[in-house]
Amino acid sequence: MSMRVKEVADLVGISVRTLHHYDEIGLLTPDETTESGYRLYSNDNLEMLQQILFFKELGFPLKKIKQIINSPSFDRYEALRLQRKMLLEKRSRIDKMIQMIDKTIQYMKGEIQMTNKEKFEGFDFSHNPYEQEARERWGDKVVDQGNAKVFNMSKEEQASFSERWNTICTKLAELRHESPDSKEAQAAIKEWYHLLNELGNYSLEAFKGLGQLYVDDERFTKSIDQHGKGLAKFMRDAMVVYADQNKR
User: Fold this and answer.
1) Keyword Transcription regulation on this protein (predicted)?
2) What pTM, to 2 d.p., does this model score?
3) Phi, psi torsion values for 41, nearest 5 degrees
4) Ordered DSSP codes for 110-154
5) Residue 158 and residue 201: Cα distance in Å, rounded?
6) Which of 54, 57, 187, 236 is at 20 to 30 A from 80, Cα to Cα?
7) How far is CA 242 from CA 94, 193, 203, 217, 229, in A?
8) What is the pLDDT of residues 17-33, one digit of tens each?
């Protein structure tokens, strides 16, 4: 059932202006707009809004959120799993800071002694831990170069790219029971190589290494094998053949 912008704002507890802003920057565009100009949000829109708000809670700026969720390789389930992990870590850091405050109050009352080191326990000024894991999950090329390019695409270009992405995955899935060095398999994996290089700058060696990651990282395997069981391994083998044949 579709919901109007005011209904969504009331449900979530954010302002209508915020939702309008998300639409204007292309972060969350409602699936429908009535002839009268009313925005209508679908269940898919609400799920993506939930994802956006989780990212915000983890300290991501809107521009970075847009880059990640628009990535062709973005996996919502995997993102939720990682977000849960990072929120638990964030809760742990907050608990430590609360303990430090309590100790500092006791110290000010003269009830306990406190070293200078103890006065700063709980502070963490390192980089965003979720972003690092996102890089490990989707790769630097996707998070940085790739998403930057997707971010600059128009909605039509993004839709076209996503369609090409899925078309090649489907083609490879249909070939996964064939030999990875077959003419058909190599033609399809060549398309994959060139498609990836529209997002980043993959050398043949990097392409080969990425294929190995498809098998070594169960998260990649699960995402790729959604198109067909065994696809990740087939793509790995085909990418090795392609890289070795073309670097000669």
Assistant:
1) yes
2) 0.49
3) -100, 130
4) TSS---TTGGGTT---S--HHHHHHHHHH-HIIIIIIHHHHHHS-
5) 19
6) 236
7) 49, 9, 12, 21, 21
8) 999 999 999 999 999 98
